[in-house]
Amino acid sequence: MSRFKCQFAVGETGQACSGTWRVWSARNKPDLYIACLNMGGQTKASIHAPNPPKHPGWRRHYGFDRDAKGEIAKAVMRDSGRHKILWPGCPFTADHMLEWRVTFLGSSLAAETFPAPFEGTTLISIPSRLEQVEVAVIVGPPSNKDYYPRDKDLPTHLLAEGRLSDGRRVWVVYVTKPLHEGDAGGRVYQASDGKGYAASLIPEDASLRAAAVGPQADGSLGFWDLHAERQGPRQVRIDTVNLAQAKKREA
User: Fold this and answer.
1) Where are the alpha helices (DSSP H) in the chain?
2) pLDDT tens digits, 133-169
3) pTM above the 0.85 mark?
4) Biggest CA-to-CA distance, the chain
5) Contacts (Cβ under 8 Å, ≥6 apart) of 14
6) Structurally, how many domains does the chain consist of?
7) SS3 labels along 87-134
8) Which three-class secondary structure state does DSSP give residue 246?
9) How far apart are CA 223 and CA 215, in angstroms?
């Protein structure tokens, strides 16, 4: 069976204003992966569907790629292994699982677009500063029925669909929705060890794109594609939005 691949970013007419993300499957194993391409292949999340007899159950982990290079990657893997985050998945029916969410905040997109840096990227319409785009990756049972899962409240768009090697279906869908109050305010994160990961999309640009990741309350794994600015030797400012100020500007 051919491999499934979906590559996406926010932008228009060949110009991007976010990081570029890829979802892809293994050729001969029921495995699925996601990574931010701008991070240089250092980290990824992996889903391993049941594959008896060797692997009878689901396995999920996020961490460093087996071939990750660099002093930080080597040190972290030497100290505590490659796998850093586990998540259980979010079942919304008996046989459909929401695995990953990738969120693009309208307030954290690049101020100016630039040529999409990776060939074969599907561009999602740019949201306003008071909106966010949420891309969901869903795994379902083998089926030939013509459908794709949809948000119960919002128009849902299909980016791509495919299959794992065992016939399980994969959908990549997205919705655009208002920015939540919980996302308000530029945030400053203190790095306890002074280390972190960010990748510049435009080499001559002083700003950075950053990817944050964390397990969600519903069982899925969440990613945020963010704009970052270095403010000091141990501080990185993540540019989200102050809703009150943004609303005043757009009024």
Assistant:
1) 71-80, 243-250
2) 999 999 999 999 999 999 989 999 999 999 999 999 9
3) no
4) 60
5) 115, 116, 123
6) 1
7) CCCEECCCCCEEEEEEEEEHHHCCCCCEECCCCCCEEECCCCCCEEEE
8) helix
9) 9
